Amino acid sequence: MTKVQLKGVRKEFGKFVAISEIDLDINSGELVALLGPSGCGKTTTLRMIAGLEVPSFGQILFDDQDVSEVPVQDRNVGMVFQRYALFPHMTVEKNVMFGLKVRGTPTEEIKHRLEEILDVVQLQQFRHRFPAQLSGGQMQRVAIARTLITNPSVLMMDEPLANLDTKLRGEMRRFIRDLQQRLNITTIFVTHDQVEAMELADRVAVIFNGKLAQYDAPDALYQRPNSIEIADFMGADNIYEAQISAGRAKTAFGELQLDQLSNPVRDGVGHVLLRAEAVDLLLEADAASENVIPGKVTGREFFGATVNYTVECNGETVTVNEQSRRMVDVGQDVWLSIQPHRIWVIQDTA
Amino acid sequence: MPTPKTTELARHRKERMWMWLQLLPVLAVLTVLFGGALVLAVMQSLGFAPWFGVNTFPDFSYFAALWGGGFFWKSLGLTLYYATISTLIALVLGTFLALALVRHFPSKSLYKYLYKLPLMIPYTVGIALAVIMLGNGGMLSRIFAFVGLIGDPSEFPQILKTHYGWGVIAVYVWKQTPFVTLTLYAVLLGVGRETEEAATILGANKMQVFFQVTLPQILPGIVSSTLIIFAFNIGAFEAPFILGGGFPDTLPVVAWRYFNDADYTLQLQGMATVVSITLIASGILYSYLALYRRYERRIGRN
Asked: Does domain A236-346 have CATH number 3.40.50.720?
């Protein structure tokens, strides 16, 4: 178990600044996702932690020891690449044994650890196959086994599920999570998929344009993003300009009562974020409900388990997501209701 | 239940015919020009040359005379020596260059053009350059004399026209290193750097990464490029003719001397030499490819 810290890390490639400055604390045994759009610098950050890139400025610490200039071979880290990077000319077991062999581990120990790890990743029956004879999920498990057999202090994964189909991706997510929890290994993985990050990670570091935008638990990031950019990246549909005054938000479609305890706000301009699944769709006006807004259903998207409604409210469009236990017709008059503590207000920190 | 009878669809038949039609020009060139010439060469080497008034077909005496003479084996040794040493040196230099080119360094784009220059210059120019640079009285000997390392350019050690063949090897290496580099560079770009990085992270040092990870992956490029340059070197004529050490010559030069002899019936002996070169080169290259195929099967490439 290793604690990883990045202190004022900056990376420049010539005149191009890939990472302007990042500070990050990753606790021992924690699973952290580096999340962001393509080209934001998340893979560069991961490669710097692995030692494949040297930071231009700043420090990388493993258990408070500066490893910024320690060569890759001496860091004892593990990395699972997006395209697996398996050695195509070696069988599964030779791939898995590679790390131990080049480190000069005794043959008996290699054999013992090979059996152990092949059991863990359930690849015993494929041990004599070559990578080209494996499916994507099997290749991914070989890549994980090849890394884990060396007992790395930090496990890193670069978009580990990007090349898998939807069903396999779900299975591999659970597999990685179970394995990480069982081995209690500090794990950092890169992804551009917010669902993947939320499902897998203890904490998510969102990186935009080479800067750390927010570092928080998945639910906090989803419910309480600290900027519109993050809210938008996390898939928020309903973000509206608002004038905040005395604990109320005045928007184009009506006034909303806010919960000052869960979301302390100051008077002035801001944006309100209404998560689509937090909005209740009522077919009759309910005086007992809070923050009721009248509207008309203008669109409906059926996803099987859930259904999305587009509701027109005083010229603004509100997206409502609910379980598909009922179907509301397009054109029907409805009332939207949202509880004050489910409304999140984003204001400039200045 | 009766098995349904399947017949080839007319469209499929048409497509197959069209494919053969497209292949026809290449097949014709290969069959008539290459195959025809080969058959004629073999027949001539076996005594079939009625246009010279010789027709003793099938007559193995030309081969017997050639293979029975001690000079033939010396010539073969020289031919293989020049071909092998220059192929190996070009391979080592080309591999280093290709590995360097996939990394980032200042003025890389300029260097990427520079290293290809010998590819565009003919062999004869390379031979002339070797004479100008490496000969006694050449640039190098004059520089040595100028800085006082030798008293006179004529004291410069003999590099050209010896059976060590440094001049021949230098020209081959100069011309073929860029070819090997070009081939391996393309292969390395296709392979990418991820497997090397993965090996490094797993604890491998540079030598382990090269020999256990990179080399097996660029082997197809190594085999194809060395195969081409070795085949060329074994049959090349100009460089050993101009820069070689004289008798015993390499086999292509021996063949040329037979063809150029006033006694035109010796052309049959020359043809036996050419067929011998073909047989030896084919044997070596076939064994090389067979060994490589065996290795490929061992690493799961079918």
From this structure: no
